[in-house]
Amino acid sequence: MLLCAGYTALAYLAVGLPLAVLPGWALDLGFGPVVGGLLVSAQYLATVASRLLVGPMIDRSGPRRGVVLGFLCCAGAGIATVVALQFPSPAAALAVMLAGRLLLGAGESLVSTSAMLWGIARIGAPQAARMISWNGIATYGAIAAGAPLGVVLSERGGLVLLGAALTSIGIAGCALALVQPSMRAREAVRMPIRSVFARVFPFGAVLALATIGFGVVTAFVTLFFAAAGWPDGWMALSAFGGGFVASRMLFAARLESRSGLRSASRFLAVEAAGLALLYLSASPQMAVAGAAITGLGFAMIFPALGVIVIEQVPPQSRGTAIGTFALFIDAALCAAGPLAGAIAARSNYALPFAAAAFCALVGLWVTIGLQTAGRRHEAERVTW
């Protein structure tokens, strides 16, 4: 289980490295906040596009292939980062950097989904919540470490050193996965993707609404700090990751499928409170606290709903189900950057956090509706 979480940690270390650097790089080239948000969100375009392909591929070919292909994409993203700097034209440099972001998004999708399913296959479905939780700890712990590390690398060697680090991570991940024995794919009839999507959709919609907050924090919190004249915006990203990891370690062991919706509703309320605090922040300390609370709340929404999603499909379709469920994260992150950038361009860098808090509250409302519908269905079943 820990080895599979380690694959995820490496992949998301690569995801975290550019987060606090690329928005400023785009502004230095003369582009506005919308393009800065798009540059951060671009990787999720590829992640969204690949999710529905990755899940069935894992179900057919096993997870090791997905991990290896994903790390190859990470290495390609590092090479693209270095190549982008060779173009004197800002438009050409941005285009190549966007291509690298798309590669990184595909790598994220391949590694994260494959590693999670690899771990669940090793420890068994009854322990799925543990694997999902450790996968998330690896994800956001690596992002929390990657953001300040990316700033340090950029300060010492520019984006060339950052690109070299991305390439090295990709090569190391490939080497680590290739020495592990592959797992034979389960031979059985699998559910059609449309049937899996229909079962996952209600829970995925809640996950997407919750993920808007994560997308706004990662895309704009450093710009929010800069606009306010506060130093060290990366601290908010690290605080978000720290709150995320603490939440997973404290609460993951208590998760069960029958309490998933109730847990999700509680943590959606916590996330909304953290985002509201970010919006109201009058000091960097308040903003860092708001980011930490946001991470604390967002952390448990995926596993709380994920343990329910796992039970919606037979074992031979779990790769497709997890990939489809994660697709809602990617779709939300893809939309969050440009939409929040448009809001910021018309007002200020604080208002996107208020909009994200509203989305979390809508997710809370939907979750309460799902709980009510579930209780009504159970009562009707017992009566029948």
UniProtKB/TrEMBL annotation:
UniProt keyword Membrane, yes or no: yes
Annotated TM spans: 34-54, 66-87, 93-120, 132-153, 159-179, 200-227, 233-251, 263-282, 288-310, 322-343, 349-368
Entries under InterPro entries matching the protein: MFS, MFS_Exporter, MFS_trans_sf
Keyword line: Membrane, Transmembrane, Transmembrane helix
Keyword Repeat belongs to the record: no
Name the record gives this protein: MFS transporter
